[in-house]
UniProtKB/TrEMBL annotation:
It comes from Xanthobacter flavus. One of its GO terms (molecular function) is hydrolase activity. This is Very short patch repair endonuclease. Belongs to the vsr family. It is an enzyme of class 3 (hydrolase). CDD domains: Vsr (cd00221). Keywords: DNA damage, DNA repair, Endonuclease, Hydrolase, Nuclease. The keyword Nuclease applies. Its EC number is 3.1.-.-. InterPro entries: DNA_mismatch_endonuc_vsr (IPR004603), Restrct_endonuc-II-like (IPR011335). May nick specific sequences that contain T:G mispairs resulting from m5C-deamination. It comes from the Bacteria. NCBIfam families: vsr (TIGR00632). GO terms for biological process: mismatch repair.
């Protein structure tokens, strides 16, 4: 199946998709800051440019969109009907890069948290996400994933 819009239109549409300062990321940042957590944003000094990192806790936080990063079992991780082979290739590359970044950070002594967009979609879930994150941050586990079931 071919694309339903021309290449220029598709390029314009794709360029409008933000990689930083997304709504879920901003919601998490506000909630964490309100709880007293201090963090840095999108630093190139940390491998993979995490959305947030907390140097005091040596923790990197990624706020992943369920669609782009393929949140397994999530209803938002759909595959578009147009050009499904293209999308699968793109998604596979995203997941492989995410895994490589996570592995390198863990091997480098960092702790890694992945907070999925679906966990931050409803405001009433945000406090629970922050509570789980805080427990993890003050604990000893190396990594955590927080999704809508949190």
């Amino acid at each position: 199946m071919t694309d339903i819009v021309d290449q220029q239109t598709r390029s314009r549409m794709m360029s409008g998709i933000r990689g930083k300062n997304t709504k879920p990321e901003l919601a998490l940042r506000r909630a964490l800051h309100a709880r007293g957590f201090r963090f840095r944003l999108h630093s190139g000094k940390v491998h993979g440019r995490p959305d947030l990192f907390l140097p005091k806790h040596r923790a990197a936080v990624f706020v992943h969109g369920c669609f782009w990063h393929r949140h397994e079992g999530c209803r938002y991780a759909t595959v578009p009907a147009t050009r499904p082979e293209f999308w699968r290739t793109k998604f596979d590359a995203n997941v492989a890069r995410d895994n490589a970044v996570r592995t390198r950070l863990l091997e480098g002594g960092w702790r890694v948290a992945t907070v999925w967009e679906c966990a931050l979609r409803k405001p009433e879930r945000l406090n629970n996400v922050v509570r789980i994150f805080e427990e993890w941050l003050l604990g000893t586990e190396g990594q955590i994933e927080i999704g809508a079931t949190a």
